[in-house]
Write a structure and sequence with these properties.
Blueprint lengths: L2 E9 L3 E4 H5 L6 H8 L3 E4 L6 H16 L8 E5 L10 H9 L5 E4 L5 H14 L6 E8 L9 H4 L4 E10 L5 E9 L7 E5 L10 E5 L1 H23 L6 E6 L4 H11 L10 H4 L6 H11 L8 E8 L3 E8 L9
Helix pairs in contact: 3-4, 7-8
The structure holds coenzyme A.
């Protein structure tokens, strides 16, 4: 049985951090950030706003767009690098707030997490174990960014995206997922405790070798896309939209060139949100849907990469009508 996406929901915090704001915080310029990353602004969660809060809002948005009741959700797979606690999981907290049932758990595959989650949910739905699953990506990355490190603080932002998935009603749906991991690249991007302060231990901080991650990203986006298409038996020419992880506009452009697809095939909404890690693909997909870029029957590729190193790609045919599962 094929699994299809019934609806996509999103939520971003109200707080906005512009490039001009960052100019006042580190030695950088708005022009450098725009030209080197494509980012104009990013959202920033309030101190009392956690990954669970963003996730609940995104999930409610997805469920309401699908016309489905939260309490009928029978699986929650949530991806985050910034859980509110090690346990309980964010997924369990979301389940409680939605009055949902069934298994609920977090997965950690950094920026590839949404695709890992979608692949897991696909297998639950495909085997008949779940009929109304939520896959959520939620991040409060600005809480683990060092705002003195210009190599990372200009890039990341906060947000959440969610999809409701269930059995396909018309034969469209997820055709393939490929996932990969190479632990040898673990040092290229990681989180480590910050230096202790007089107030106590340093908070965790993202460290990144931007140049090396950039090179890996452009290669893996193209490679994973082609692998997933081959597994699905779908030709690249038949793909109308590729929704890549939003890490850097130049990475997206380079991947399009490598694949030989027109720039307009790639979705790129990094300007407004920066890199929201595991939330970036549903945020970009939602914008593409709102812009009328997705029609029933279209072949779409979702593709991403992240710390680990990890990567993933899913090929899906968009379902018509978005009929709700029973
Ligand atoms: N403002 C101004 N100058 C900056 C800067 C900033 N925010 N960050 C770096 N620079 C400087 C560097 O110090 C360097 O100066 P130098 O030439 O005098 O040494 C110069 O700009 C080029 O640095 P480099 O690191 O090569 O920049 P870049 O063009 O690669 O851009 C990133 C940096 C981080 C934007 C880019 O490498 C990137 O996006 N990498 C991928 C990151 C990613 O995808 N991460 C998420 C994984 S999920």
């Amino acid at each position: 049985m094929l699994t299809s996406i019934k609806a996509v929901g999103t939520h971003v915090p109200q707080g906005v951090l512009t490039n001009a704001d960052l100019e006042r915080m580190v030695e950088t310029s708005a022009t450098w950030i725009r030209e080197r990353t494509g980012i104009l602004e990013r959202r920033i969660a309030a101190p009392n706003e956690g990954a669970t809060d963003l996730a609940v809002m995104a999930a409610e948005d997805a469920l309401s767009r699908a016309g489905l009741r939260p309490q009928d959700t029978d699986l929650i797979v949530l991806s985050t690098s910034t859980p509110d606690s090690t346990f309980p999981s964010c997924a369990a907290r979301v389940q409680e707030r939605l009055s949902a049932r069934g298994p609920a758990f977090d997965i950690q595959a950094a920026c590839s997490g949404f695709l890992y989650g979608l692949s897991v949910a696909d297998q639950f739905v495909g085997s008949g174990e779940a009929r109304q699953a939520l896959v959520i990506g939620t991040e409060t990355l600005t809480k683990i960014v060092n705002f003195k490190d210009r190599g990372t603080c200009v890039v990341f932002g906060d947000g959440a995206g969610a999809v409701v998935v269930g059995p396909s009603s018309d034969g469209a749906g997820i055709r393939s997922c490929v996932l990969g991991s190479d632990g040898q690249g673990g040092d290229l991007i990681y989180v480590a405790p910050g230096a202790p302060t007089p107030e106590g231990p340093g908070r965790p901080e993202i460290h990144m070798d931007g140049r090396k991650v950039f090179r890996f990203a452009t290669e893996i986006l193209a490679q994973a896309t082609l692998e997933a298409l081959e597994k699905a038996g779908v030709a690249l020419e038949d793909v109308s939209l590729i929704v890549p992880h939003q890490a850097n506009a130049r990475i997206i452009e380079a991947a399009a060139k490598r694949l030989g697809v027109a720039p307009e095939v790639m979705v790129n909404n990094i300007a407004q949100y920066g890199n929201t890690s595991t939330a970036s693909i549903p945020l970009a997909l939602r914008e593409a849907i709102d812009a009328g870029r997705v029609a029933a029957g279209d072949f779409i590729v979702l593709v991403g990469f992240g710390a680990g190193l990890t990567w993933g790609a899913c090929v899906l045919q968009w379902e018509g009508g978005g009929a709700a599962p029973n």
